[in-house]
């Protein structure tokens, strides 16, 4: 059974701090990795994807991928209260995408 | 912008009823997906379709069927609804089969089976 594991949280950080969200996956053949944000009562929306080892930056967000360790993370710099949401890690191989259960993030003003 | 719409935001049905959930996307996407989302379990794939009239089982297809007669429309059918099918149902679409394809989600249907 292919799995994607995330700490369910909640993760609480003060406004302006760096939030670090982590994800591990079991299928070594996985090729693309996504982070989605889901606000309460809403559907997931893409933050960013990464498919090469290393870091990828987009504004305040940085995705990090380590395929040898089967580990992907998302860093949110200068966290804002509006970043409070559930963050879903997703891993793709072929047609299918496997989602983690998500980490709840609270950013305290 | 890609738009994915679902027929209902909230639905209440009785055990044993046949339930239809419909999803429509307006960006000519090839692939469409049905997920259910339950607390602590994340998003689980029920069925997906990569072409008109084509369908593939996901991880939890039991108790569900699907129909894709037109490219833009993907329907999920609960043949005989049961209380354990109470959940949030999310439809999604992707443009193609490229590894970097983003899933675009509809707003979701919260189904309650009494």
Description:
The complex is a heterodimer of chains A (109) and B (114). Chain A is an all-beta fold and 109 residues long. Chain A is built from no helices and eleven strands. Helices cover 0% and strands 58% of the residues of chain A. In chain A, the strands form two sheets. In chain A, strands 2, 4, 5, 9, 10 and 11 form a six-stranded mixed beta sheet that branches. In chain A, strands 1-3-8-7-6 form a five-stranded antiparallel beta sheet, with no helix packed on it. Chain B is globular, with a radius of gyration of 13 Å. The mean pLDDT of chain B is 92. Chain B has 114 residues and is mainly beta. Chain B has no helices and eleven strands. Chain B is 0% helix and 53% strand. Chains A and B meet through strand 4, strand 5, strand 9 and strand 10 of A and strand 4 and strand 5 of B.
State the gist of this model.
The complex is a heterodimer of chains A (109) and B (114). With 109 residues, chain A is mainly β.
Supply the key terms.
heterodimer, A: 109 residues, mainly beta, six-stranded mixed β-sheet, five-stranded antiparallel β-sheet, 11 strands, globular, B: 114 residues, seven-stranded mixed β-sheet, four-stranded antiparallel β-sheet
SSE inventory with pairings:
The complex is a heterodimer of chains A (109) and B (114).
Chain A: E1 4-6, E2 11-14, E3 19-25, E4 32-38, E5 45-50, E6 54-58, E7 61-66, E8 71-76, E9 85-93, E10 96-99, E11 103-108
Parallel strand pairs in A: 2-11
Antiparallel strand pairs in A: 1-3, 3-8, 4-5, 4-9, 6-7, 7-8, 9-10, 9-11
Chain B: E1 4-6, E2 10-13, E3 19-25, E4 31-38, E5 42-49, E6 56-57, E7 64-70, E8 73-78, E9 87-94, E10 104-105, E11 109-113
Backbone structural class of chain B: mainly beta
Shape of chain A: globular
Question: Total number of β-strand segments of chain B?
Answer: 11
Rg value of chain B: 13 Å
* Run of helices and strands of chain A: EEEEEEEEEEE
- What is the averaged pLDDT score of chain B? 92
By DSSP (H or I, 4+ residues per run), the number of helices of chain A equals 0
Q: Estimate the helix proportion of chain A, in percent.
A: under 10%
Low-confidence stretches of chain A: none
The major β-sheet of chain B equals: 7 strands, mixed
Find the biggest chain interface: A-B, 24 and 24 residues
Main sheet characteristics of chain A:
6 strands, mixed
Radius of gyration of chain A: 13 Å
The end-to-end distance of chain B, rounded to whole angstroms, is: 37 Å
How far apart are the termini of chain A? 40 Å
Content of β-strand of chain A: over 45%
Query: What is the number of helical segments of chain B per DSSP (H or I, 4+ residues)?
Result: 0
The proportion of residues in beta strands of chain B is over 45%
Structural class of chain A: mainly beta
Helical content of chain B stands at under 10%
